[in-house]
Design goal:
Strand content: 25-35%
Number of strands: 4
Low-confidence stretches: 113-119
Helix content: 10-25%
Distance between the termini: 22 Å
Structural class: alpha+beta
CATH architecture: Roll
């Protein structure tokens, strides 16, 4: 690999957030034109029955022209979650007395998608 190829992917700045089986990497890299962009990588550890393990990674490339809107949308989504569910984690992993609500007891407001929207399962493994 030539030095110019190495430099176009060299990390300028990096932060790591460990969260249980998941690790998030926030890496600033440099474009060919000399500008910076951000990659956010989620790495999740999976174990096999034989004791071996592997990691699955998903990566987002975020460029400066999208920073403002991305931040606004992220803030809006996280504010919505905290204002509707609070900041205490609700899950079987974090609570001994956790009881998963049944699907038939969900209110209309708790539906995962709004009317007219559909959800598509997207795999980022091919990217």
């Amino acid at each position: 690999m030539s030095d110019s190829n190495f430099n176009e992917h060299e990390e300028i700045y990096s932060q790591i957030l460990r969260a249980g089986r998941r690790t998030y990497f926030f890496d600033v890299r440099e474009t060919k034109a000399g500008d910076y962009y951000l990659t956010i990588t989620e790495s999740k550890k999976f174990s096999s029955e034989d004791g071996s393990f592997h990691f699955k990674k998903h990566k987002i490339f975020l460029y400066k022209e999208d920073f403002k809107e991305f931040r606004e949308q992220l803030d809006a989504a996280t504010d919505f979650i905290v204002s509707n569910k609070g900041d205490v984690v609700i899950s079987e992993r974090h609570q001994d007395d956790f009881v998963k609500p049944s699907r038939e007891h969900l209110d209309q407001d708790d539906e995962p998608t709004k009317e007219g929207e559909s959800f598509t399962d997207v795999s980022f493994d091919d990217i």
